[in-house]
From TrEMBL, chain A:
This is Branched-chain amino acid ABC transporter permease. It is found in: Cell membrane. The chain crosses the membrane at residues 6-27, 39-57, 104-128, 134-152, 164-190, 221-242, 254-281, 301-322. Its main location: membrane. It comes from the Bacteria. It is a multi-pass membrane protein. Keywords: Cell membrane, Membrane, Transmembrane, Transmembrane helix. InterPro entries: ABC_transp_permease (IPR001851), LivM-like (IPR043428).
From TrEMBL, chain B:
Keywords: Amino-acid transport, ATP-binding, Nucleotide-binding, Transport. Gene3D superfamilies: P-loop containing nucleotide triphosphate hydrolases. Residues 2-234 form the ABC transporter domain. SUPFAM superfamilies: P-loop containing nucleoside triphosphate hydrolases. Belongs to the ABC transporter superfamily. It comes from Shinella pollutisoli. It comes from the Bacteria. InterPro entries: AAA+_ATPase, ABC_transporter-like_ATP-bd, BCAA_Transport_ATP-bd_LivF, P-loop_NTPase. PANTHER family: HIGH-AFFINITY BRANCHED-CHAIN AMINO ACID TRANSPORT ATP-BINDING PROTEIN LIVF. One of its GO terms (molecular function) is ATP binding. This is ABC transporter ATP-binding protein.
UniProtKB/TrEMBL annotation, chain D:
It is found in: Cell membrane. Belongs to the binding-protein-dependent transport system permease family. LivHM subfamily. The keyword Phosphoprotein does not apply. It is a multi-pass membrane protein. This is Branched-chain amino acid ABC transporter permease. Keywords: Amino-acid transport, Cell membrane, Membrane, Transmembrane, Transmembrane helix, Transport. The chain crosses the membrane at residues 12-35, 68-90, 102-123, 143-167, 196-218, 279-300. InterPro entries: ABC_transp_permease, BCAA_transport_permease. It comes from Shinella pollutisoli. It comes from the Bacteria.
TrEMBL record, chain E:
It comes from the Bacteria. PANTHER family: AMINO ACID ABC TRANSPORTER ATP-BINDING PROTEIN, CONSERVED COMPONENT OF ABC TRANSPORTER FOR NATURAL AMINO ACIDS-RELATED. This is ABC transporter ATP-binding protein. GO terms for molecular function: ATP binding. Keywords: ATP-binding, Nucleotide-binding, Transport. SMART domains: AAA. It comes from Shinella pollutisoli. Residues 9-242 form the ABC transporter domain.
């Protein structure tokens, strides 16, 4: 096999995800309306977040409810650094002076925020990754609640449960795309690395992995930290897309939605993570438009307000029932002959 | 008692059984042997109702049963000891046995049967209140067989009874199968190795790649050559014609 | 001539829709009245509505879409958190954003920006008003404060209450503070603490909203605590009174009475026209704020003779006790929220709210209190 | 002294409520590896069944207008039917799926039900005044016990004992545990396994209905999210108590309830808003010390 | 523990009790590098428990495990694996959603290799075992026999000093057993490791073991050469059965 051929093979699953995304971004950027463009940006940010979530959840098989925590940490950190110079001394009087009285340029502040999210994930993981299975999941849920309680009542720094409003909104479609690309590449490099292989083994069988000399703790801690960084990036993007940061946006419903996207797509593969986001976003947007009303043959037609949520819930259930392992069923998009072999049709 | 005609079954696109014919008469002990992946377990799963056949008919005691749910078949007197034991790991040994006896209405006889299997497998008595999941591999296998005996079926299907059993215990199991058969139980047994089966079997089927490669009375196959040929496929063509 | 366009970026679904819908209907009513009377600056007013679905991201998107569609003014959700994203979109296009009933001063100059207004009073003002009323008119000397941590509105109302009470009766007359969460199934330990006080207070102030507030009142009464209960405006509606049949001695400040006993004739007139237009009284007294919102803006436009934001804002910033249906209204170039508009004090009697009297607070919250700095 | 006793009573009362919910969560988890978030909506819908389904904020009573026995029966029936319906429609087809898929499917069911209630009743909280008499407190030796809390304690303790006996001693209970563990094998042994599993859901519905009533009597209010926090607490309770152990679930429920009340009571005022952070930290600490939970049944320990 | 090859793996007076059940009581067992030791005994004799103890999955209630005279009883399963003791399981326990090559690579990574060298080692072992063609198959599509072979291969990918194999031949037919015997017999020479082999299939045990240790009821019953064990009346009574030699044991 030629070298470049091997490289192409290695990167093909990533290309198969990224190229269609790029096409979507280019098309909507050129031809889409405001609402569609914003939906696409939201989708790309969700990809960053869900891919970040996937790095841990998908590879380790442990559901984490705690990742919104790291997003919140990054988003708030970014808000403290970049938001509303005039308002900060009043509403966030508890901030240390170097933050309270000045703004920090966007790029360094984003990097610092992401580092903070990753660091928080590392520290959390240091404690929690001794746990496995359900205990680990529940403890991440506890972390989510703890952060929520702390941030919604630490009034002088976080403005409590009120939104911090007025962050610079610099997130464009192409920036979001670039970040999604980065997240996907990071996830791919990780999952194909030795660390990725090791943690996938622990997902399949913890006992056999231990017998193979794999440390459950360290492999999970690495994944947890890395995914903390990536969702931190997602948090920063979301903050600077909406222009507002609110702790309530990083709580249960958000967590459930992100997990739902991951699992609908199939949590066992990177392609699944992305597919889940794309499919769920599309369905939501479609029914949102139907609810707002479309013109059919001259007349206005719409579904009753509030039915959108019902339909989306039913839709997700149907996907889960008919594709138990999600849309991609844990597989990456490989080159044709590759998928053939992987499916194991050639029987021994 | 059991009549299987042209039954096919599979997993998704993979067809594991291809038009299999097989009959078991009342009181017979029929063995099914064959290499890994031949479809032996699939055959038992299909008969017991765990899988629906994609074609063909299955009749038990003269009534067609294809497509009936396993709980109904169980009530008709068909028991299966599936591959991989399938004991209830979180239940105690006692509860595992109780569950099997629950469908029986003859309580006294069930209690007597329970004593009988505990005598047959004394290790189960000593682990009676222990959790079944903690048993050793062979002990679990014994529990699975004991449970099927307790069901007091008309016909018992066992998938690889000797799996994980010590040689001595295999002897006991085969001995008790012989006794049960003598008491009127019909048996359909899947085995991996042909070494032990000849003196218990009434008839033997060799399954290969989802086909019946050879079928015959045990005494006809006693020299073992035809059996081995069919088994390993040296003369697959010839055997199929036979 | 081209019509004037008003956009509504409000919640038509999700929990916030319950708060947005009543003032929205009243706002529409006012627009219709203006149109019937010949329009504004001789132009008819057109309005369009888009649903934020009670999501911040949606709120930002529909705000941008409405502004993109060329509205002259954007009406945004009742709540600061969900109104602000739309208001920011308006700000970027240089348009006025007017919140139906945000009670947070950040929906204004220091938060969203100089083009943002809200039709409501600051939550602190409610707390101050009921505190002063209780001291001066009800002659209560000591109080115990129960704070629901669910939303900032509660915290602000409590902050206002404490400041107002301390101003009149001294810090020490607040015998204690306790907190609870709106969704706590039980406040038994809070009750135990209250009952364990060395001296029982003269009243309890609860800054909360339904359902948690209603549940707290029920549990207080069930525990045999018959003290007067003071509360904030959000608890004004009758519907939760089922939870505490026979409730007595319950007071709060409100915008207006929906039951025809408001001492102010303009409120009753509003009530009548609402019944005429929709066949029923408003479901919530917040309704009048939406009506008054359009009234205030239209008045400013008329004065400015243009819909240009800067000119209109200049007029509005000059309002000083300008009489509108909702009450005297003041804005300055620093404050785009009311801090001492008179309140209608109401109490519960025969399982319904009854108007008592109109009360205007004398203690005005300063900026520190409004933004709860150092609280 | 009386004060400490009072605090303990408060704590145990809240703990019992969480224990009741935890029993339901634990039971269904036991049979299906499903952490059923829709339990929250069973509770909510049971409570909403008390009033006529309408958008009005002051709806007339429906089941709530019936005499007590009928009302209780009616609410329990509604929730049991609901639980069975969700089992049949959503969870049965997903049997054998991995726990994460099941969990997400229960989110979907929950989301569906919540929005259904919202569509019918609107999102505005409502109120019902049932059980006013029960809600008021009795004083025993200076200790105040609201009737409904006493009832909660009794019901929780009674149901715990009943359920444990049912699962350990009755044939149906043993069958349920068997079917929970190995569905196919249970069928092979002649059990109507689908019905047996559905029974577990019916019981969880029964528990849900009981919680609906107790909660409504306590708070007098109906809200879309009224079931959520109890279920979240129960969720923690089941795990720290030891998954698969009903006494563990109940114990966990007590612990979170007690911790919550004690923190509320003894934290200094400035820290009281952070009460729940304390409770959840405690959850994490317990898990770190006992990852399998407080009560580990020997069956839960898997051998290699 | 460092990874240099060890010469001897020993159990000294190992006892394991589960509540009242004494799965092992005071068993001594020693495995040298390069030898194949059979471990047989009736069901429930404690064989799997012994492997669990040796591989760190079960703390002994008393007694010690020594690797070249270093006490490793307190080490975790992972550390012991890294120190050179590999095991297979009674059920294959493969990483089912991964390919065969990845299964082996995981063990190589566990032994400290990077991704690329791990793959090379994995492919080398697969090649040696005649499984090269299956390197890229997912394990959930393997036949039963291949599954068992891969699980052995995975243990070997640790390049262990000692390989503990728990009933590798169960569920295999006669021909497959024979292939497996051949494979096991070649392990010491190829990997330089000692092999502890648990089997109920006497053909396999008698065919490849140099020494056999018999457990019964958690206690050592006998140890010796295959011929000795076969003729040992105690072993025959407890385990093999009286009819044993005429059928199963034919070598
Ligand atoms: N659950 C399954 N999904 C997909 N394919 C399966 C499944 N179970 C068995 N197969 C395939 O069906 C074929 C027949 O399998 P079956 O288990 O019936 O064989 P068998 O004769 O019992 O083999 P063994 O001796 O290994 O038990 C094999 O190719 C096997 O890989
Ligand atoms: N975790 C446990 N709890 C209780 N008893 C146990 C546990 N693990 C093993 N045992 C008991 O210890 C004994 C030894 O079990 P072990 O699995 O070592 O036997 P074995 O020799 O491997 O048997 P087999 O040949 O059947 O696999 C068995 O009787 C078993 O019931
Ligand atoms: Mg088989
Ligand atoms: Mg064993």
């Amino acid at each position: 096999m030629m070298k470049s051929d091997a490289v192409f093979h290695f990167w093909f699953p990533v290309l198969a995800i990224v190229v269609p995304l790029a096409v979507i971004v280019a098309l909507t950027d050129q031809f889409g309306g405001l609402s569609l463009q914003r939906t696409v940006i939201e989708m790309l940010i969700s990809i960053v977040i869900v891919v970040g979530l996937y790095i841990f959840v998908g590879n380790s098989g442990i559901i984490s409810f705690g990742h919104a925590t790291f997003m919140a940490i990054a988003a708030y950190a970014s808000a403290w650094q970049t938001c509303c110079e005039m308002l900060k001394p009043i509403t966030m009087s508890g901030l240390p002076p170097f933050l309270r009285d000045q703004s920090i340029p966007l790029l360094p502040s984003a990097l610092v925020s992401i580092l903070l999210a990753g660091g928080a994930a590392f520290l959390t993981g240091l404690v929690l990754m001794r746990l496995t299975g359900l205990a680990a999941s529940i403890s991440t849920l506890a972390v989510l609640f703890i952060l929520n309680v702390v941030y919604s009542n630490w009034d002088s720094v976080t403005m409590g449960s009120a939104s911090i409003v007025g962050l610079p909104t610099y997130v464009t479609a192409w920036l979001a795309f670039g970040c999604a690309l980065l997240a996907i590449v990071v996830a791919w490099l990780y999952q194909t690395s030795a660390f990725g292989l090791a943690i996938r083994a622990t997902r399949e069988d913890e006992v056999a992995a231990a017998a193979s000399g794999i440390s459950l703790y360290w492999s999970r801690l690495i994944a947890f930290t890395l995914s903390g960084f990536v969702v931190g990036l997602g948090g920063v993007l979301q903050a600077h897309f909406l222009g507002t940061v609110s702790i309530n946006n990083f709580f249960l419903s958000f967590t459930f939605l992100a997990l739902a996207m991951l699992i609908v797509g199939g949590m066992g593969s990177l392609a699944g993570a992305v597919a889940g986001v794309v499919v769920v976003t599309t369905i939501v947007d479609l029914f949102r438009r139907l609810e707002a009303g479309i013109s059919v043959g001259g007349g206005q037609w719409s579904i009753p307000a509030g039915t959108q949520e019902l339909i989306i819930a039913a839709f997700m259930l149907l996907i889960l029932i008919f594709r138990k392992n999600g849309i991609m069923a844990g597989r990456e998009i490989g080159l044709p002959q590759h998928t053939h072999r992987e499916k194991g049709l050639v029987h021994g | 008692m059991l009549e299987i005609r042209g039954v096919s079954a599979g997993y998704g696109r993979l067809e594991a059984l291809k038009s299999v014919d097989l009959t078991v008469a009342k009181g017979e002990v029929v063995f099914v042997v064959g290499p890994n992946g031949a479809g032996k377990s699939t055959l038992l799963k299909t008969v017991s109702g765990l899988m629906a056949p994609s074609a063909g008919t299955i009749a038990f005691n003269g009534e067609t049963i294809a497509g009936e749910p396993p709980e109904r078949l169980c009530c008709r007197g068909l028991a299966l000891v599936p591959e991989g034991r399938s004991i209830f790991r979180t239940l105690t040994v006692e509860e595992n046995l109780s569950v099997a006896a629950m469908i029986r209405s003859d309580r006294d006889a069930a209690a007597a049967d329970r004593e009988r299997v505990l005598d047959l497998f004394p290790i189960l008595r000593s682990r009676y209140h222990g959790v079944a999941g903690h048993l050793s591999g062979g002990e679990q296998q014994q529990l699975a067989i004991a449970r099927a005996i307790l069901q007091r079926p008309l016909m018992m299907m066992i998938d690889e009874p000797s799996l994980g059993l010590a040689p001595l215990v295999i002897d006991q199991v085969y001995e008790s199968l012989r006794q049960l058969n003598a008491d009127g139980l019909t048996l359909l047994v899947v085995e991996q190795s042909t070494a032990r089966i000849l003196d218990l079997a009434s008839r033997i089927y060799v399954l290969r790649n989802g086909h019946v490669a050879l079928e015959g009375a045990a005494c006809d196959l006693a020299d073992g050559h035809a059996l081995e040929e069919a088994y390993f496929g040296y003369g697959a063509g010839r055997a199929a014609q036979a | 001539e081209d019509p004037i366009k008003i956009g509504f970026a409000i919640a038509e679904s999700g929990w916030l829709s319950n708060y947005d819908s009543a003032p929205f209907k009243a706002a529409v009513m006012k627009i219709e009245e203006i149109n019937k009377a010949g329009g504004l600056l001789g132009r008819q007013i057109e309005y369009s509505v888009m649903d934020t679905k009670t999501e911040q991201a949606r709120a930002a998107t529909v705000g941008a879409q409405l502004v993109d569609g060329g509205v002259d003014m954007l009406v945004v959700s009742c709540d600061y958190d969900f109104g602000a994203p739309s208001a920011l979109a308006a700000k970027q296009a240089g348009k006025i954003a007017f919140s139906l009933c945000a009670a947070d001063p950040k929906m204004g100059v220091q938060g969203v920006g100089p083009l943002a207004f809200t039709a409501n009073s600051a939550a602190q003002s409610e707390g101050i008003a009921i505190a002063e009323y209780a001291q001066k008119k009800m002659n209560l000397k000591t109080v115990y404060v129960l704070e629901d941590l669910l939303i900032e509105y509660n915290k602000s109302a409590c902050a206002g209450f404490r400041a107002g009470w301390a101003a009149g009766g001294g810090e020490e007359s607040i015998l204690g503070n306790d907190t609870f969460k709106n969704d706590d199934p039980s406040i038994a330990s809070q009750i135990t603490r209250l009952k364990g006080l060395a001296t029982q207070p003269d009243a309890v102030f609860i800054c909360s909203v339904t359902p948690g507030g209603a549940s707290a009142v029920r549990q207080l009464r069930a525990a045999g605590i018959d003290l007067p209960i003071l509360a904030s405006t959000a608890m004004v509606d009758n519907y939760w009174l089922n939870a505490v049949p026979g409730l007595k001695d319950f007071y709060l400040p409100a915008f207006m009475s929906l039951y025809g006993d408001d001492p102010r004739p303009e409120m009753n007139a509003f009530l009548e026209s609402h019944k005429a237009r929709y066949g029923e009284p408003p479901v919530s007294s917040y309704s009048v704020l939406g009506y008054s919102l359009i009234e205030q803006w239209a008045y400013a436009v008329e004065q400015a003779k243009t819909t240009e934001s800067e000119a209109v804002v200049a007029v509005m910033n000059g309002f000083k006790d300008q009489p509108f249906t909702a009450g005297p209204t003041s804005f300055t170039d620093q404050l785009h929220i009311q801090v001492d508009r008179p309140w209608l004090i109401m109490k519960v009697e025969n399982d319904s709210f009854r108007a008592v009297e109109v009360y205007r607070n004398s203690f005005k919250p300063d900026m520190k209190l409004l933004f709860r700095v150092g609280q | 002294m009386a004060n400490i006793v009072q605090v303990l009573v408060d704590a145990i009362a809240l703990g019992s409520l969480y224990a009741l919910v935890a029993l339901a969560i634990g039971l269904v988890f036991g049979v299906m590896r499903l952490i059923n978030f829709a339990q929250a909506d069973y509770i909510t819908i049971g409570a909403y069944a008390l009033v006529v389904p309408t958008a009005s904020v002051t709806p007339p009573l429906l089941l709530g207008a019936l005499p007590a026995a009928l009302m209780i029966g009616g609410v329990l029936l509604v929730v049991v039917v609901l639980a069975l319906a969700t089992e049949r429609v959503a969870f049965r087809p997903l049997r054998n799926s991995n726990p994460s898929t099941l969990l997400i499917s229960s989110f979907a069911v929950s989301y569906f039900l919540q929005n259904l209630v919202m569509l019918v009743h609107t999102g505005r909280p409502k109120s019902v005044g049932i059980g006013q008499g029960l809600a008021s407190a009795v004083e025993i030796a200076g200790v105040r016990i609201p009737g409904v809390q006493l009832l909660t304690m009794v019901v929780a303790a009674g149901l715990l004992v009943a359920l444990v006996l049912f699962l350990k001693k009755t044939p149906l209970g043993i069958q349920m545990r068997a079917a929970a563990e190995n569905f196919q094998m249970a069928r092979l042994l002649g059990m109507p396994a689908n019905r047996v599993i559905a029974l577990a859901f019916a019981i969880s519905g029964l528990l849900g209905g009981a919680v609906s009533l107790l909660l409504t009597i306590q708070t007098g209010t109906l809200d879309l999210r009224m079931g959520l926090m109890p279920v979240v607490y129960a969720f923690f309770a089941t795990v720290i108590g030891g998954m698969g152990s009903l006494p563990g679930a109940a114990l966990g429920g007590f612990l979170v309830g007690v911790a919550s009340v004690l923190l509320q009571t003894y934290l200094p005022p400035d820290l009281r808003p952070f009460r729940d952070a304390g409770v959840f930290t405690l959850v994490i600490l317990i898990l770190l010390v006992r990852p399998q939970g407080l009560i580990v049944t020997s069956a839960a320990k898997e051998r290699v | 523990m460092s990874r240099s090859s060890k010469e001897r793996l020993e159990a000294r007076g190992v006892a394991v009790a589960f509540g009242g059940i004494r799965a092992l009581s005071g068993v001594d067992l020693s495995l040298k590098r390069g030898e194949i030791l059979g471990l047989i005994g009736p069901n429930g004799a404690g064989k799997t428990t012994m492997v669990n103890v040796l591989s760190g999955f079960q703390r002994p209630t008393s007694g010690a495990i020594r690797l070249d005279d270093i006490d490793v009883s307190r080490l975790s399963a992972r550390k012991i694996a890294q120190a050179g003791v590999a095991r297979s399981f009674q059920a294959a326990r493969l990483f089912r959603a991964m390919t065969v090559e990845q299964n082996l690579s995981v063990a190589a990574i566990g032994a400290g290799l990077a991704r690329r060298p791990a793959r090379e080692r994995a492919l080398g072992i697969l090649d040696w075992m005649g499984l090269a063609g299956k390197a890229d198959l997912r394990c959930d599509s393997l036949s039963y026999g291949d599954e068992r072979r891969v699980s052995i291969a995975r243990a070997l990918a640790l390049e262990p000093s000692f390989a503990l194999l728990d009933e590798p031949a169960s569920g295999m037919n006669d021909a497959e057993c024979e292939a497996l015997m051949e494979l096991i017999a070649r392990l010491p020479e190829r990997f330089g490791c000692g092999v502890l082999l648990i089997e109920h299939n006497m053909k396999v045990i008698m065919g490849v073991c140099e020494r056999i240790h018999v457990l019964d009821g958690g206690q050592s019953l006998a140890e010796g050469s295959p011929a000795d064990i076969q003729m040992n009346p105690v072993v025959r009574r407890a385990y093999l059965g009286e009819k044993a030699s005429d059928r199963t044991l034919a070598i």
